[in-house]
Amino acid sequence: MKSFSRSFEKFFVFVLNFHFRFLCIYFRFFRWFPTSGSALFNMAAAVIHSCGNSAVEIVYKSCKPDSNKLCMKRDKSDVKCKEPYITLTNGFTARGITTTIKAIARISECNLLGQDILQEAEVDQWMEYCLTKINPCCEDKTEIKDIIKLLNSFLVDRAFFVGNSLTTADLLIFSTLFDVYNTLTIQEKERYIHVSRWFQEVQNICCTTDKSRTKVVFLRNLLY
């Protein structure tokens, strides 16, 4: 009976040691040193599915969220992924570009939604304007230049669209105008000098968080 008791005691100690070592390995490699892949996504409180949307990806990289709170999957090759969305661990899902962008900013606490309630309302207005007015005109060269002309007038004495610091409104408009601005001539960029100044400022900020990002070329001596 004593030998059985000792054997059971040794077995129990062995099991405890095994679980202890397993927990140590888990916390060392998965908790404190998160890796890419499914393990990382399972840990996060929320997962952003960008569906290849450049604005969502720019905001995510600018916010640099804690990987324990938020992770991103691009899903660019998934034909079923038609618009960005966010999924919480409880299964709740919210869709839409604006919704996803605001969720990233809030969860990350990166202060890109304005300094107060009024500024946040302005940010919402500009994001809506971008999606409903700017984006539909991007394929029409005449209409998009008229839009840029209006934006140029607005930015005459402003560094950013809302307040004195970068917001999600700037990032969304920047992302929407990127391909358009990439096709403008140097003379056209000079004509829209205030938009060009703003565009280059946002571009420089984005490149600090994404070194591999392609940049629109400006001639400094013509713009400054």
Automatic annotation (TrEMBL):
GO molecular function terms attached to this record: translation elongation factor activity
Keyword Metal-binding on entry: no
Pfam families per UniProt: Arc1p_N_like
GO BP annotations, alphabetical order: positive regulation of DNA damage response, signal transduction by p53 class mediator
Signal sequence, renumbered to the chain: none
Keyword annotations: Elongation factor, Protein biosynthesis
Coiled-coil zones: none
Transmembrane segments: none
Gene Ontology annotations for the cellular component aspect, listed alphabetically: aminoacyl-tRNA synthetase multienzyme complex; cytoplasm; nucleus
InterPro entries referenced in this protein's UniProt entry, alphabetically: Arc1-like_N, EEF1E1, Glutathione-S-Trfase_C-like, Glutathione-S-Trfase_C_sf
The protein's name in its UniProt record: Eukaryotic translation elongation factor 1 epsilon-1
Organism name: Paramuricea clavata (Red gorgonian)
Lineage of origin: Eukaryota, Metazoa, Cnidaria, Anthozoa, Octocorallia
